[in-house]
């Protein structure tokens, strides 16, 4: 009903707009930038085992799998522990090799996804510590894992996951930063990174202020039948997530790729009918991404770029440039994904799609 949607037309839009609050809720009581440290009560009993892990395997499906990919970059860079990301469905049917020193982490908004639950059971059967990152309190996965962290993002009703993704990335960032304690970060660096994370909700709020601009962009691109999303490093999983959001709710075919892989295939698809969304933040990969943009423009592709506030360098090359607040590179997925959520939302609405309940999809898939 209208009341639950708090005046928004769809749950999806409400949930996108709620992200400054849901992210603050995910961090509340856990992020202590003044100390500086991270407190994750749910992992207290297993923390020593996690810190000493030789390898972490993250298993998930759908959007949760995309946050797992961000988690791989976060944990490898801050904790220097090797991470492997698995589709839960593939992991469980492969008779995976699990050894002493391995830790399995599953990510599931609903805590009920059958494939992800099967991965939990497989890990536990093999005697490996299994941790859960879930949103729904008391869900099956939350109950069957040895320990875990709740998102505290509040109920997510829209089938296309939005606020759960950003909360998952936030929880993974907190885990990675906690693992970095006495390891890769000085006290000063830790304080700096925790302050940066704490400032994310306000920055998400600024990105949400671009809603009208994004709606206008959507009206230009609503008739496209294909989209390509490209990003690198921390923003490669965001490219995948942007493409998934568009597919799920607008039924437009979209693919996400690591920007540098474009030359190995997707570039063949580019012509003037192919919109390409680039995540081009001024980070360690920026110059390379700009050359990818030039290659697309040279083939008449229409480019939408997401870049940092104050960056005017892309205006000449791109059809649209969305400028979002600066943050640390490792936190940028929390900001760059938001315009992509809004873009797919508006395109889907303009195409008359059932945004909250897209055809053929379910909020949680309890069959294998
Ligand atoms: C379904 C939903 C997706 C979700 C995926 C995993 O496919 O439509 O939005 O990302 O399941 O769900 P989970 O609850 O395990 O995160």
TrEMBL record:
Could you tell me the EC number(s) of this protein? 2.6.1.16
Organism, scientific name: Longibacter salinarum
Enumerate the UniProt keywords alphabetically: Aminotransferase, Cytoplasm, Glutamine amidotransferase, Repeat, Transferase
Domain annotation SIS: ranges: 46-185, 217-358
Q: Name one GO cellular component term.
A: cytosol
Reactions catalysed, as given in the entry: D-fructose 6-phosphate + L-glutamine = D-glucosamine 6-phosphate + L-glutamate
Query: Does the record carry Repeat as a key word?
Result: yes
Instruction: Describe, as the record does, how this protein assembles with itself and its partners.
Output: Homodimer.
Function, please?
Answer: Catalyzes the first step in hexosamine metabolism, converting fructose-6P into glucosamine-6P using glutamine as a nitrogen source.
Entire protein: shown range:
243 to 610 of 610
Q: Which residues form the active site?
A: 363 (for fru-6p isomerization activity)
Q: What are its GO biological-process terms?
A: carbohydrate metabolic process; fructose 6-phosphate metabolic process; protein N-linked glycosylation; UDP-N-acetylglucosamine metabolic process
For the keyword Phosphoprotein, the answer is no
Name any one GO molecular function. carbohydrate derivative binding
Q: Where in the cell is it found?
A: Cytoplasm
Record's protein name: Glutamine--fructose-6-phosphate aminotransferase [isomerizing]
